[in-house]
Design goal:
single chain; mainly alpha; MetI-like fold; 11 helices; 0% strand
Length: 228
Amino acid sequence: MSFGAAFLSALRLLTTCDPQVVAAVMVSLRVALLATVLATVLGLPLGFLVAARRFQGRRVLEVALNTLTAMPTVVVGLFTYAVLSRRGPLGMLALLYTQWAMVIGETILVTPLMAALTMGVVSGADPRVEETALTLGASRLVAAFTVLLEMRRGILAAIVTGFGRLISELGIALMVGGNIAGSTRTMTTAIALETSKGEFALGFALGLILLGVALAVNLALAALAPPR
């Protein structure tokens, strides 16, 4: 099939809402959104703690988080597979080759990134924001929330960055998801599979949707974030 014919076929699949396309898109969005939420819940407080507090081993933790942001997805996938496999410590949960296995692996992948990005955002915050909140009687937790609220543009950008990495993730999805049609097949694993079979139309269709999702997320960020 020529490039032009494959592209036209991709457009036809999009306009007719092909079931394979819809299923892959829904799995991708569900897994990426859940993993982004979990990574934010874990990474945001950790990043704030490292950036705003002084404690023994802080520098080591900062270096470790920055190093983990470059973890190859296949390494995270291998680790998650080992933990969730039948002989692994969590094998009794029977999560391997499920969407939850993908969520766990992708959360592990992006939590250090979320923490590192939060560190950078909080490090640039005016220290007087937290000091003022504490002076006015706020608790440490409320004061920390005030700082994060003040730096919400940077925090939103960090969350979008994490989601962007997850929606296009391939290694973890393949290794612990198994690329099962209608269950764990994502846009990226479907693209890889269809391309290997020479079926470029579906791959092009899913690729266009990936670009559309990226555009939509960035437009949402621009709409939600306050002006500079």
